[in-house]
Write a structure and sequence with these properties.
The complex is a heterodimer of chains A (247) and B (433). Chain A has 247 residues and is an all-alpha fold. Chain A has one domain. Helix content of chain A is 81%, strand content 0%. With 433 residues, chain B is an alpha+beta fold. In chain B, the strands form three sheets. Chain B has a five-stranded antiparallel beta sheet with strand order 2-1-5-4-3. In chain B, strands 7-9-10-12-11 form a five-stranded mixed beta sheet, with helices on one face. Chain B has a two-stranded antiparallel ribbon with strand order 6-8. Chain B is rod-shaped and about 165 Å long. Classes of the chains: A mainly alpha (247), B alpha+beta (433). Chains A and B meet through helix 1 and helix 6 of A and helix 1 of B. Chain B: GO terms for molecular function: ATP binding; phosphorelay sensor kinase activity.
Chain lengths: 247, 433
């Protein structure tokens, strides 16, 4: 129970924390406003989805939840593309992108916490697992924030690339869900790297949260990834000026 | 980073949390894995012990001792178990047999049946140690990593202070420009502002002092020149009119005005050669040629006092220096030697090299200076014997101060001593080649 809880929290929180930390570096001069803009829609969407999860999951032949999640992941990616291109509303769009991601991961976590507490599970193991998962995830986010602050100061290209990887990761998640619900043809498997870097390893977890690492990607995922990364890099070509003006 | 405290607190807490939690997670995994292996081992032992019951004559070593008693008769015992009961009391106990200490469990499920199982204590401790070691190992291994990361984080946090002190240390004596740092943390901001304010005020004060001394000297030079001309004219008119001057007032007046003029000239030169203000224009020059020019300049006065002067040593000595400043240095030394040496005395200039340095020695057979005065004669306005030197020569007390400033400008050295050959003063100047 303990190890499962830790892994569950890391899987859900790490991508969100990494995206939040990355965008906070961008909007650090007005971080309070960013947090406010992010919190309101996030709480609203989280409350809406988690309270209607059963109904949502029963829609569209039982794939309602997968399709909603893939829509939110795609929305997150599109919002990030627009945020990097549109200086005037960059903060609002970035905050809303984070809110989309939180509504997915938050719903999953609430479901995970809610279900075991209904049974005979030891709550101390759940609480300890939550503390470990939140602690590790938030620590990585803090270190990530300071690392990006340094990178942004010295190498703007690295910051742009990392932000693009985080953005295209959401597209990768969306495509995986669409393939899972047969809304997107999978195509042949591109490669198999599970023996060198398993998805369940610590590094695999981190890379999955950062750039949507998959040990066995299929053709449609590869195409989506390449196109998404190219689009985001193109949209963020003036990111340096946008960030400087924001600061 | 905007604040050192915030940076250190957040990053160190994050590091500690991350490493400790990862170590705890790893301990959990390793302990669970080890415990699972032990449970599997127990299952194997149990299966083997049951199998032995049905294999007559089997002597396989189990690691466990097992006895089954029925109606006080031993109906089964494993190879390691003795023929007597391993324990008489129900429950857990410890006993010695077969040369080992055993942990024994005695159970009587029915009145006629007794099962006794024993395990060597050493084996139990070994198994417990394995589980504990597996859980402690990641925590211990994470300590050097934590230490390294703390060192890196603290070094990074203190880097603005390091840059600040490095900039202060690299400043030259005359550099009073403000210190500039990128991304000044809040804790250093006030210190930087105060230091820069101090530099600005100091620069302004120096500028005022420089201008004041220079302006005063400059303003006094013109009226003094007029005074000198008028005095000369008045003196000639007195002579033509046959006005007697039994007290020598006119001569004393002329001497006073001349001294004041010389003093003002020296003040201006001192101001010009002060290392805090002077920007040396170094060039390759011939010190021997420069000395010859200075001797030629002073020759009329030397001849007037019927003194002997000679320049010995190297005929050419090339070094890098400021021509104006070095000429003033040699001029002050030769001028002092001539002024304070009696009429008919001797002056000697010698040029040599020693250990990558040019050495200029000026000696005379004048009265010299007492050794206890050597350090003080370089002070501004200090004159041996007070305002009026025992030689009766008028002076400003700035000549050697200017010499010291020029030598410092060239990273050289100047020292005084008694002349070996001429019995007067010897001034030695060493300048890097």
């Amino acid at each position: 129970m303990l190890i499962n809880t830790v892994l569950m929290f890391l899987r859900e929180l790490l991508p969100l924390f990494l995206l939040l930390a990355t965008l906070l570096v961008w909007h650090r001069s007005r971080w309070q406003r960013f947090i406010l803009l992010f919190s309101f829609p996030a709480v609203l969407m989280l409350a809406l989805f988690s309270s209607n999860m059963l109904w949502i999951s029963e829609q569209l032949d039982g794939f309602g939840l997968e399709l909603l999640y893939s829509l939110l992941y795609t929305g997150c990616f599109v919002l990030l593309c627009m945020a990097t291109a549109k200086r005037a509303v960059a903060m609002q769009l970035s905050a809303f992108a984070c809110a989309c991601l939180l509504s997915i991961n938050g719903s999953n976590l609430l479901l995970y916490i809610w279900l075991p507490t209904q049974g005979n599970t030891d709550p101390s193991a759940l609480l300890l697992g939550m503390a470990l998962g939140v602690g590790i995830g938030s620590s990585i986010a803090v270190l990530w924030y300071y690392l990006l602050t340094e990178l942004q100061q010295w190498r703007m290209l690295s910051y742009r690339l990392l932000l693009s990887l985080l953005g295209v990761r959401q597209l990768m998640m969306a495509s995986a869900l669409l393939i899972q619900s047969d809304w997107l043809p999978a195509g042949p498997q591109l490669w198999q790297t599970g023996q060198w870097l398993p998805e369940q390893s610590e590094l695999g977890f981190f890379l999955q949260a950062l750039m949507g690492y998959e040990a066995t990607p299929v053709l449609s995922q590869g195409l989506a990834y390449t196109a998404g990364l190219g689009l985001l890099l193109w949209c963020s070509r003036n990111l340096q000026n946008n960030i400087r003006s924001a600061q | 980073m905007s604040s050192l405290r915030r940076y250190l607190v957040t990053v160190l807490i994050a590091l500690f949390t991350l490493i400790s939690f990862l170590a705890a997670l790893q301990s959990y995994r390793q302990s669970a894995s080890r415990a699972e292996a032990l449970f599997d081992q127990d299952l194997q032992v149990l299966a083997s012990s049951l199998a032995q019951q049905y294999q007559a004559g089997s002597q396989q070593e189990l690691g466990l001792a097992l006895q089954v008693w029925q109606n006080n008769q031993l109906v089964y015992r494993s190879p390691l178990a003795p023929e007597t009961p391993m324990s008489e009391t129900a429950g857990f106990s410890e006993h010695n047999f077969a040369g080992k200490r055993w942990r024994v469990f005695h159970q009587t499920p029915t009145a006629l049946l007794t099962v006794i199982v024993a395990q060597p204590l050493q084996q139990r401790q070994q198994l417990a140690d394995e589980v504990i070691t597996a859980s402690i190992y990641p925590v211990v291994l994470s300590l050097p990593l934590q230490a390294l990361l703390i060192w890196l984080v603290v070094s990074k946090a203190l880097s603005p202070i390091k840059r600040f002190s490095a900039q202060l240390a690299s400043k030259k004596a005359n550099d009073l420009t403000p210190v500039e740092l990128e991304q000044v943390p809040a804790e250093l901001d006030q210190m930087l502002k105060t230091t820069n304010l101090l530099f600005t005020r100091l620069a302004e004060a120096f500028e005022r002092e420089k201008r004041f001394a220079s302006d005063v000297a400059h303003e006094l030079r013109t009226p003094l020149s007029v005074l000198q001309v008028n005095l000369h004219n008045a003196s000639q008119q007195w002579q033509q009119s046959g006005i007697a001057d039994p007290q020598g007032s006119m001569l004393a007046l002329r001497a006073g005005v001349e001294r004041m003029s010389a003093l003002i000239e020296q003040i201006m030169l001192l101001n010009r050669t002060n290392p805090e203000h002077f920007q040396a224009r170094t060039e390759q020059l011939d010190l021997a040629g420069l000395c010859r020019q200075v001797v030629a300049d002073w020759y009329p006065q030397i001849e007037k006092k019927q003194q002997q002067i000679e320049l010995i040593g190297l005929e050419h000595l090339s070094l890098k220096g400021d021509a104006f400043a070095l000429r003033l240095l040699v001029s002050n030394l030769v001028g002092n030697a001539s002024k304070y040496t009696q009429a008919g005395g001797a002056i000697q200039l010698e040029l040599t090299t020693h250990a990558e340095k040019a050495v200029l020695t000026v000696q005379d057979n004048g009265p010299g200076i007492a050794p206890e005065e050597y350090s003080r004669v370089f002070d501004r306005f200090y004159r041996v014997g007070g305002d009026r030197h025992q030689s009766g020569t008028l002076g400003s007390g700035l000549g050697l101060a200017i010499v010291r400033d020029i030598v410092n400008l060239h990273q050289g050295q100047v020292r005084l001593g008694a002349s070996d050959s001429l019995s007067g003063l010897k001034v030695t100047v060493e300048l890097p080649l």
